[in-house]
Amino acid sequence: MKSSKASPFRSQPPVDFYELARQQRLKSIALFILIVLFYLFCFFLVGVLILGIFGLFFASFIPFSSSSMSKLLLVASLLAILVGFFHFLEARRLGPAYIIRRLEAYPPDPQDLYHKRLVNTLEEMAIAAGLPRVKAYIIPTSAINSLALVEADNSPAIMVSEGLLADFTRDELQAVLAHELAHLANGDSFTLTLVCSLADIFERLRELSEPQPSSQLPSWGEIHRQTEIQSGQPLFFLAFTLTSIIMALLSTLISREKELQADAKAVEICRSPRALARAIYKAYTKNSLIGDFNPTYSALFIVPPYSGKEVDNFLTRLFRTHPPLIRRLRILCAMIPISIEDLHLEIREMENQREKARLEIHSPAERHKRKAEDEHEPPLLSSLEKEEGKNWLVRSPQKKWEGPYTLDELLRLPFFSPRLWTKNLQEKVEARAEEFPQIKTKWSLLQQKKHPSIISDPQCPRCHVFLQSSFYEGLPLHVCPRCQGKLVDSAYVNRLLVRREVTFSPAIIDKAQKIKEEFMAHPFRSRKLIQNSPPLNCPTYGRQMLPRPFTYYYVIPVDKCLLCQKIWFDTDELEILQYLIETRPSGET
User: Fold this and answer.
1) How far apart are CA 133 and CA 136, in angstroms?
2) What is the pTM of this model?
């Protein structure tokens, strides 16, 4: 005999998108009626209080007669419809845009390999879910979280954090996207976006009306004005607090069971309850905190956006927007089947394997030393001398010979002039540059041309060799083939610091430890180091870059260009910064 109890993971028939849009319109109408009824109750209650006060002071006035109550009901209804309409319109049109703006979310970068993987995976899972094109957004935070919402033009959108992209495997990313697509397919995201936006309006009004304790005694002229302002605030504060609680309970009731239904449909879409269980476990146990984002939007996220352990008491159970972690994991683990303890061990094992698979980065000095030991020849100069066309040495302003360079590289040096002493290695001739016919001819041609504002072939500001385009942890950048310095877009740096594809050699770790002991513990020393560093020219624009500490805490001096917003990291600087941030104590920013 079959059990009559319905399984929370019972598969649902697919919903047509047009039918889904019609259902969303019906939900909008129902929510609008609910808002109007709420305002009608509030305005009618306020009107009754006002009529009662008038009745106390005017004996001839009958406050609760049928005619006065009818007029009061009519006025309260008109006000409720008017205020409810504007409230609903603001939440519907401005709510999603506010969420995107508040989270500082942006579309995926087509040059970022991690973002490309997100776009491709989302298209794949949207096809499996039978949904139209879904927009993707990136939340620039190292926390692990995601959410789905419906924008004002009814476009579905999914937002994931940089931390999630950096930490999750492809099947875990598929499971998370399937969960968010399930919310969109079930119509949950539309309702939750609207309800959370409505709740946020009341929450902001509550914060504005909250009485603020004065830090100092007011002057005699300000006492009357402050008394008038603060005397009305507690009433509004209590009203908006009650309204915020009601809206929070409404979003909680909608969200809590919808999460289990979304988990069920996600398994149906991605066919991997194991990956979804790992993703939810990692999101819960690691940092899921999205800044200081308003908790009224908690129902939108795949896990509550907070950092810490779950607290189990009456209030948390009442306002909990998500089912407890244990309940979600038990249902998912029963489908594999596997125990929660085994799931935890599996995640630990995968993280250990991923840690072992990280590519170890060595400093250029280590690589050159190893190459010299293997080949028994000078590591750098001899190989460069063998390159075709690198026949020129030049005496720098510091009276040192630099090179060898090709003729084009020689003429692009920032300190080059026709009066500079130059040596031709092939002819073994040393003279001023203007005395070499090939240099004089090409220099004259370059002087006749107009130099573009943007340099097409950027050069290393240290070695003056052409930079090579490369990828580092999924992001495009330029690398010097000689000193391994890196030119990075400033918008990419935070993404690099979140990702964990590489590890570092003992030599780099020793450098990082010395910088931590010498400069991070004594920031004033870094100021002297920055002041003594020679100025560099931007490889993109040719203008002088500004030497600055990376941040006030990580005082590694880097060179920043204010025109192209790029940062030049000298040898091992980016790797040292990554190591220091990865190994920072818990709680440091």
Assistant:
1) 10
2) 0.69
Assigned token pair, 121: 């995976």
Show the tokens assigned to 432. 């001023």
- The Cα–Cα gap between 319 and 244 comes to 12
Neighbours of 348 (CB within 10 A): 10
CA gap 339, 36 in Å, rounded: 48
Residue type, position 386, single letter: K
d(CA 170, CA 322): 25
* Average pLDDT across the chain, whole number: 75
In what side-by-side order are the strands of the sheet with 468-472?
Answer: 468-472, 475-479, 486-489, 566-569, 557-560, 546-549
The phi, psi pair for 470, rounded to 5°, reads -150, 180
Alpha-carbon distance of 162 to 114, in angstroms, equals 9
Residue 232, C-beta contacts closer than 8 angstroms, at least 6 positions apart:
none
Peptide bond into 337 cis (omega under 30): yes
Render pLDDT for 402-457 as a digit per residue (tens, 0 to 9): 888 888 778 878 778 888 888 888 777 788 888 887 787 777 766 655 444 566 67
* Residue with the larger pLDDT of the pair 126 and 300: 126
> CA-CA distance, 14 to 374, in Å (whole number)?
64
Tokens 């780099």 belong to which residue? 508
What phi-psi label fits residue 101: left (phi over 0), alpha (psi between -120 and 50 degrees) or beta?
alpha
More confident residue, 61 or 285: 285
Q: Is the pLDDT at 381 greater than 50, yes or no? A: no
For residue 268, give every residue at least 6 positions away whose Cβ sits within 8 Å of its Cβ, in sequence order, or none: 11, 182
Q: Which residues contact 434 (CB under 8 A, 6 or more apart)?
A: 418, 419, 440, 443
CA-closest candidate to residue 279, choices 168, 442, 425, 433: 168
Residue 326, both tokens: 């244990």
How far is 503 from 513, CA to CA, in rounded Å? Answer: 15
In 3D space, the residue among 265, 268, 149 whose CA is nearest the CA of residue 197 turns out to be: 149
Contacts of 454 (CB under 8 A, 6+ apart): 540, 541
Beta-bridge partner residues of 503: 360
End-to-end CA distance of the chain: 59
